[in-house]
Structure formats: structure tokens, C-alpha cells
Amino acid sequence: MKLKVCGMKYPDNILKIAELQPDYLGFIFYEKSKRNFEGIIPELPKSIKKVGVFVNEYIEILVSLVEEYKLNVVQLHGDESVEYVEKLKEYLPKVEIIKVFGIKDEFNFEILKPYEELVDFFLFDTKGEERGGNGVTFNWKVLENYKSTKPFFLSGGIGLEQAKELMSFLRRQESKFCYALDVNSKFETKPGLKSVEKIQQFKKLVITNEVK
């Protein structure tokens, strides 16, 4: 199971979280977000992939930010169309693409089909007022209806208090294609500032199962 820590903002905090060796660090490029990233991303280990999170951004701006920050992954958190993703792949053939879909108590998985051949991963987040970072989980039982073989990231209000429930979910059939867990607001002391201790504890408990 991979770990993505999203909504990184402060250079010193970024370096401290990087020492815990998550697989992905997410940087939000969306001015309306409290975690909007500006400035310089410090040098990170090559094992950590840098994810740029975008919401209905102009492709030209997105591509320029990918190049400026040397991002490895693009996460599309808006209403980006199939045509948008096709065009993006032409511009960034070597960059992985994650397409986000919001879920609450039900979801029509048929809408994923046109994206399947274009994206590397889906990400399922809680449908809420904000474009992510709502701090609320969705009903994971909905994923029993996931028929695709495309790997996905599980997101939305995941915190230490969900550890037991998560470990139970990861033993069930609907988690078969769950590739990574995406954490954000439940590990913050303020927007964009992550608790090193809490992330370390979560990683040991859920990702590496070091704590029995």
C-alpha cells in the first residue's frame, strides 16, 4: 500500500514529512484553496513523486507549472473532460495522471469508462463543499460496485481514527485495486502544516503494519 500526503505548503514541514518516506507528496495549485502552494519545493528524495493538484486549470498554465516544479504526477480535481485529458497527455506524455471523482453515498461508475485508457489512476474523494480537504469520509461500501481494474487512490477524511476501519477495508474484495491512501486535513495543525508524529504513527499502523 502506497501513501500520499497531500496539501503540503511549508518548506521545513515538507522536508520533515519527506524524511518519513511517503510515496507521494501533493502540492495544490488552486488559488481558492487554503493549501494553495507558492514558492519553492525543496529538494526531495527521488523515491518521492511530486504531485501537482489542479482544478479546471488552463492546460498551458498547468503544463508550465509541471515544468517549473518538475512534477511527476498531475492530479485533476475538477470537472476535466475526456478531451482535456487527451490533450494533456499530448503535452505531458511522461507525466502520470490521476483523475479525481467525488463520492458520497452512491456513485455511477459508468462515468469512469471513457477515462480508463487515458489516466494512470483514479482517486475517490468525499463529495463536499470544498474541492478536497473536507475532513469527511465517504461510504466505502460504494466501492463494492467498482468493476474496473484501474488502480485507485482512496481519499477523503482519512485519519488515525479510521485506522481499524481502514485495515478492515483493505482485507475486503472492494479494496483489491486500492493502490494508495491519500491523507491531508486530518493530519494538520493548520491548513498545509502536517503533524510529523501523526503521519509517522499512521504509516506504521496502516501502511507497514509495524504496530500490532
UniProtKB/TrEMBL annotation:
Keywords, sorted A to Z: Amino-acid biosynthesis, Aromatic amino acid biosynthesis, Isomerase, Tryptophan biosynthesis
Pfam families: PRAI
Entry GO MF terms: phosphoribosylanthranilate isomerase activity
GO biological processes: L-tryptophan biosynthetic process
Catalyzed chemical reaction(s): N-(5-phospho-beta-D-ribosyl)anthranilate = 1-(2-carboxyphenylamino)-1-deoxy-D-ribulose 5-phosphate
EC number: 5.3.1.24
Keyword Isomerase among UniProt keywords: yes
Pathway(s) the chain acts in: Amino-acid biosynthesis; L-tryptophan biosynthesis; L-tryptophan from chorismate: step 3/5
Residues in N-(5'phosphoribosyl) anthranilate isomerase (PRAI) domain copies: 4-202
PANTHER family named among the record's database cross-references: N-(5'-PHOSPHORIBOSYL)ANTHRANILATE ISOMERASE
Family named by the database record: Belongs to the TrpF family.
Protein name from the UniProt record: N-(5'-phosphoribosyl)anthranilate isomerase
Gene expressing this chain: trpF
